[in-house]
Amino acid sequence: MNNILFVASECAPFIKTGGLADVVGSLPQALKQYEKQDVRVILPLYDEMDEEWKNQLEYLCSFDVQLGWRTQEAHLFTLTYNQIIYYFISNDYYFTRKGIYGYYDDGERFVFFSHAVIEALKHINYKPQILHGHDWQTGIAIALANILQPIENMKTVFTIHNIKYQGVMPLDIYEDFFQIGREHISGMEWDGMLNCLKSALFHADKITTVSPSYAEEIKDPYYSEGLHPVLHERSGDVIGVINGIDTREYNPSTDPSLFVNYRSARSKKRENRIHLQRQIGLPFKEDSPLYIIVTRLVEQKGLHLVQHILEEFLEQDIQFIVLGTGEAEFEGYFADIAYRYPEKASALLTFDEDLARQLYASADFFLMPSKFEPCGLSQLISLQYKTVPIVRETGGLKDTISPYNELTGEGNGFSFTNYNAHDLLNVLHYSLEVYHNTPAWNYLLKNVGKSQFSWKESAHQYVTIYESQSPELVYG
Question: Which of 143-147's residues contact partners 24+ apart within 8 Å by CB, and which partners?
């Protein structure tokens, strides 16, 4: 039996703030399709987790975790879901809080979690051959696995989901958090600070990120958030593997969130749109295509570009809906647009999973003009719901959406290259032209319908990576 242990700060369906949870929830399910393996996941036990899951937890044991000169107690629980075993590390001081991120001591919380993961390996009847960490919250676990070697010959893989977030703390807390020699500081320090992400990049046997284009982009100073020298040094060990989505979970023919289920019929999408717009108070217009944005309202998502051109585009016979929460600047802007264009625009300044799916099922176009995007899941979901993506060519957006070409009939969406508002406006106008050209529109929709980004191929690539680190791993 081949053993792979995922380490992460969130995982669907137990606790989720974004795409990281979807990946950690879906990838083990895809990997289990390969024979002769045992993929498990270890997570913090947050107070925020629904009682539905807490009630299924089985207590395993308690143990002490040494955090520098302090001793903290950890409690280990487990449950099995969809044939995957999950472990949860509980500590009242660090994890009994509202929400899961955003605290002044987040660095300390996840350093504790990393220590507890290494200690937990002594208390479970399971010896992983691969420890696979995800994002900065697990970076110290990867470093400690390399330094302490808690399991003989265990290898490590680390996935960067977003290099912008690194878990940076003052370097003088090193003795407060660790009981290892100062000779290890250099592997954890970057730019005069203790850096959890850099710690993983230095110590991991293999480094992956969530799309091939992003794997190249983060070696460039513009995208690297300062870590390009480290990534250049490890260049041969950095591999881009495009994320997939759970195509059973995101399936418009079975999705219980939708008003009307469908496979590909545009008439059923129209019915969903009528119900949705009646619900949110936006008048239905038969011949006006619906453009949507479903996102966190932050600069990364290209919203400054949208600000520059949206009113001009609203002069066309179109409708627009945005769903999301975030920075006050963008919430205020979209609320004002909806107030001034009540027949054409709606701003839903909240986040609701059911409502998001209803939007995907109702819209003609999904807009994602990101400044940078490691992979992006929303454009993949929009393809599943037969909604045409419009994206900027960066990271995973470039790898998954190819621009429609009327001459060749190729492409599954629309895209633009430069981070420029007028380039965005030009591609929006072109999308509107294609929409009103019935033969071209039908051809594009056929291409969208053929686009599949399940986890099957990505899981196979991860299997290859695992095997390269532990040749004794043999998959059926």
Answer: 143/114, 143/184, 143/187, 143/188, 143/199, 143/200, 143/202, 143/203, 144/114, 144/115, 144/118, 144/180, 145/118, 145/203, 146/203, 146/204, 146/205, 147/180, 147/184, 147/187, 147/203
> Would you state the structure tokens that stand for residue 325, as one six-digit string?
């929460």
* pLDDT band per the 50, 70, 90 thresholds, residue 471: low
299: tokens are 């600069």
Three-state SS for 100? coil
**266-450 shares the fold of 2-244+456-469:** yes
In terms of Cα–Cα distance, which of 361, 200, 402 is closest to 266?
A: 361
CA distances from 84 to 14, 73, 154, 173, 442 (A): 13, 26, 20, 37, 41
| CA atoms of 386 and 360, how far apart (whole Å) | 8
pLDDT at 188 over 90: yes
Distance of CA 258 to the CA centre of its chain: 23
Domain ranges within the chain, ordered by starting residue:
2-244+456-469, 266-450
The string of pLDDT tens digits covering residues 420-442 is: 999 999 999 999 999 999 999 99
The CATH number for 266-450, chosen from 3.40.50.2000, 3.20.20.80, 3.40.50.300, 3.30.1360.120, is: 3.40.50.2000
Average pLDDT on 194-204 reads 98
In this structure, CATH architecture of domain 2-244+456-469: 3-Layer(aba) Sandwich (3.40)
- pLDDT at residue 476 in the model: 47
Lowest mean pLDDT among 8-17, 342-351, 463-472: 463-472
Query: Which amino acid appears at position 361 of this protein?
Result: A
How far is 85 from 62, CA to CA, in rounded Å? Answer: 18
